[in-house]
Amino acid sequence: MQFIEHSKTSSNSHTQLTQLSGIDAITLVLYDELDFCKTLMKIAIASDHGGFDLKEQIKKVLNTLGYEYEDLGTTGNESVDYPEYAVEVARKVQQGSRGILCCGTGIGMSITANKFKGVRAALCHDIYTARMSREHNDANILVLGGRVKHSAEQVAAMVKTWLETEFEGGRHQRRLDKIIECEGKE
Predict the structure, then answer these.
(1) Catalytic residue among 136, 150, 172, 182
(2) Which of 11, 59, 89, 184 is most buried, judging by how many CB atoms fall within 10 Å of its CB?
(3) Burial label, 7 (beta-carbon count in 10 A; 0-12, 13-18, 19+)
(4) In which order are the strands placed within the sheet that holds 98-103?
(5) pLDDT in tens, 150-174
(6) Annotated catalytic, 103?
(7) pLDDT of residue 39
(8) Does residue 19 fall inside a structural domain?
(9) pLDDT tens across 24-71, in order?
(10) Total count of domains within the chain
(11) Are 117 and 180 in contact (CB under 8 A)?
(12) CB of 144 within 8 A of CB of 113?
């Protein structure tokens, strides 16, 4: 049996000593690491008019999950040009953030964001593609279509899965390296 000092940062910050054994201790440490990662990971989020309502829905999911985010626009349903917003998120991702983009189908945002070096924007349609975009492709921008019909639960599950899935590396790193070699080629 071991004792673990468990620190929790919140509005009522406190430290408690917990008596745990085996798997419980490992689980507590992993939860602490996930909470720590949430505080380090900043999410840049943006949409055009076609993805605005979905973006607002995703912001609620991010709040519920405890992630910090920066909303880079748009601010309503009035027609705007999606490349302007994809550029803003792609630049934040180049600086180390992760991003989420939404437009009508997600296609235009994906095309634009992927023009930037180091950006791997993945258009996802379900939990499986959200998970695989992280596990195999180390996607750093999740792209979703606002006019593609998903329930609120499906959207929340895709966002949560994408944020919490780690890149597997290994054979996938070798493939990712080949993609990186293509950046800047004409």
Answers:
(1) 136
(2) 89
(3) exposed
(4) 68-71, 42-47, 98-103, 141-145, 121-123
(5) 999 999 999 999 999 999 999 999 9
(6) yes
(7) 53
(8) no
(9) 333 333 444 445 455 568 999 999 999 999 999 999 999 999 999 999
(10) 1
(11) no
(12) no
